[in-house]
Amino acid sequence: MTQLGYITILVLWACSTALAISCGNIENGRVKPSSFFHRRKRTFECNAGYIAENDNNRIECTSSGWSPVPRCIPIQCGRIENGKIVDKVEEKTTFQCNHGYKSENGINETTCTSEGWSPVPICIVQECPHPPDIDLAEIVSGEKAEYQEEDVVQYRCYPGYTLAGPERITCNGEKWTPPPKCLAPCIITRQQLETKKLLLSNGRRRTVLIQSDQTMEFLCGEHSDLKIPYLIKCVDGHMDLPTCISGTGEKCGRPPTIENGDITTFSLKEYAFGSSIEYRCQHYYIIEGERKSYCYNGIWTKVPVCLEPCVITQEDMRSHNIDLKWASAQKLYVSHGDFVEFKCRSSLFPNSSNNYRVQCNAGQIPYPQCT
Fold this sequence. Notes:
Elements: H1 3-23, E1 29-31, E2 41-46, E3 50-52, E4 58-62, E5 65-67, E6 72-74, E7 83-89, E8 92-97, E9 101-103, E10 109-113, E11 116-118, E12 123-125, E13 127-128, E14 137-141, E15 147-148, E16 152-157, E17 162-164, E18 168-172, E19 175-176, E20 181-183, E21 186-188, H2 190-195, E22 198-200, E23 208-210, E24 215-220, E25 226-228, E26 231-233, E27 243-245, E28 261-263, E29 276-281, E30 286-288, E31 292-296, E32 299-300, E33 305-307, E34 310-313, H3 314-319, E35 322-324, E36 331-334, E37 339-344, E38 357-359
Antiparallel strand pairs: 1-2, 2-4, 3-6, 4-5, 7-8, 8-10, 9-12, 10-11, 13-15, 14-16, 16-18, 17-20, 18-19, 21-23, 22-24, 24-26, 25-27, 28-29, 29-31, 30-33, 31-32, 34-36, 35-37, 37-38
């Protein structure tokens, strides 16, 4: 061997020795020799009769010591199947089951004895019960005898009914994500139209079926010149038919103001009986209620409200250890009623009690948490 070769070996031995001193020795183990260029990231091996407590034997020397902390345990204990050791205080060892598994007896502490682990740590597969039964719906895919973590089933409503919520739910930590609901349609009969002196938008009367969340326009019949309101929405089988009025009445003053919204025309000091104005909301805000308000005997009919959006920031996501699943943005606006999906940050796991596809509700969003 040349003199340069001896010098290289000596340098590597010196660096390895200095590294072991700065980060400390490994109890019942040792650091494997490594090249000069990779002296911070190393691998370790355990002495005879011992085994690394986790599968990963790669470590790095940092300013605060080895990361992760290398531990060698007696070989009679061995690794924990479908789990890993997360801490050790004196004789007590704390373990955590892998994602999709749970401790069989609910205990996450054990002790390594001369005869092995006591109690024996056993990680079993997490299972969900049968998916919830949804009224007026059926499961169309994913149905089976047993359900495990991340299994998915899909629902479909009966004809005429409207699905509200996600059509697919997921087994998440022994329980299902929130299921959907099937909303009933509204049936307006010819007799109801005749009693209310109403006409359909085409000026005729007939029995009609309107799906939930859909709207229908009505006209007033003879001897009526105003409809309040003119567009009616079906809400899960319920629909308030409009009221027709006629004749003259008191005038109205300026229309009411609404928070985060305004009328679409210039405001006047005075409005004639039967006049109407229309409202709109600011960007990202969702209008709830009838857009038009009518002047009726000096009083304006009910005005709508503007529902606040949800604002998702990097700071909020960092505090919950999550990221957006399908997008990357410093700030995201989510309108009321819309859904957004999150994922755990790298190397973190979801909490079993959380749902990671959540809905914005009037500016509030239930953030999931990862650990």
